[in-house]
Amino acid sequence: MGVLSKEHVEEFNQSRLLDLSGDVLEAVITKVPTVDLIPASRVSREWYLAVHSSLRHHPRRLPWLLLCHYLPPNILRFSIHAFDPSSRTWLSIPRRLSSCAPLNHVPARLRSGSSGDRLYALSISNMAISEDPFGARWHMNVEPPKVWRQDAVLAEVGRWVVIAGGGCLMPLYGEEELRSVEIYDKSTGTWQMAESMPVQFDGSTSATSLSVAASDENLYVMERKTGVFSWFNPKHRNWVPTCQLKSFHDVSSWAVAVGCAKKLLVVGVGAMHESKLSVRIWEVNREHLKVEDGKCEEMPTEMVNQLFQDNEGDDANATWHGWSVEVCGTEHGGYVYNPSEMRNGAVFYELEDDEEDNIVRRWEWVPLPETLGDNLMGRIEVGCSKVGLSDLSGLSL
Fold it and tell me: What is this structure's pTM?
C-alpha cells in the first residue's frame, strides 16, 4: 500500500467526520468551542440538528468575560475581547463604524444587565443600547433621559432601563440632582422620574464609586469603599433602606454580583490572617441584604497573589487601604478582577448549583488575551454575559 499524500489524509479525515451521527456526533460537538459551533452547524443538516440538540442537552450556561479596550487618544476607538470559559479561548472582535450615526460620535460604555452586560451610547439627543454582548446589533431611536449625567449608573432590570446618579449639579435642584433616578420602560418607550438615591450615597453617586448588579426585578448598588448597600425596584420606583455589612472592618474594597438561588454575592478584599491579603466572597440574601449563615469562602492564595502581585512584599501592610476589587457575574459564575491593574488578568469562578455548604465549585485563572499585547494604554471596561449561537452568528470574524 502506498503512502497517502497530505491532501488525501485531509479528505479521509473530513469524510470520517461527515460519517459521524447520532450520539457519537453529539458527544463530539460537546468538545467544540462555542465560537466554532456556527461553522459546524453549516456542515450538513445532520450537523445542524446535532449542534442544537447538544446545546439543549448540554447548555453552555457559564458567562463569557467581556473586555472593552478604549484606545487613546480617540475614545471612540475601541476593541472587544471575549473569553469563553468552556473552551478557555479568547475571541477578538474588531470595532467597525456603525450605520447608526450617533454611535460614531459618542463613546460606547458597558452597562450591567439582568440578561447580561451590554454596550450603550448616550448623547444629548439619543440613547442607544446593544442587543447582543458584542455590539453587533443596536436598538436605536431612544430618547435620552431628562437629566444630563456624567459617569452615571446605567443598568437593564427586566423590562426597564435604570439610570441613576451622576447628575450634573443644577442650582435649581441642589444636591438631589446628583442622586436623581430615571427609568425607561421598554414596553411603552417612555421615561419616568423615580425616587432619588438614598442620601447615604452622597459623594459617591458616580458609577466609578459604585458596584452594581441587576436581576429581573431589582438593581443592587454597593458603595465600593464603605460597603453601604441598597436596592432599587423600578416597578414601584423606590429604594429600600440602606444597610452596611457588619464586623468586616478589615475589608478595604467591596463589590456585588448576582448569585444562584435568588442570592447575591458580595466580594471583599482586605488584610487578615497575619496581615496577609485575602479576597473573600459572601452569599447574601437578596431581599434582606444579610449574609447567609456560614456562607463565606476565600479565593485561593495563589490567585490572590496574581490579582494583586504589585502589592506583594514587605510593604504590603502600608498599602492595604489602596487595594480595589470588582466582580461581574451571573447565577452560574463570574469573574473577580483588580480594576486598578487589569494587566494582572481575572479569576473565574463557577458557582455550586445546589444547596451545598460551598459557594464556589471551582476557581480558575484567566490571563489577558495575547491580542492585547503589552499595550494597555487607555481604559478597559469589564463585563460578562451568557453567549449563544444567535449572538455569534451576527459577527463578521
Answer: 0.87
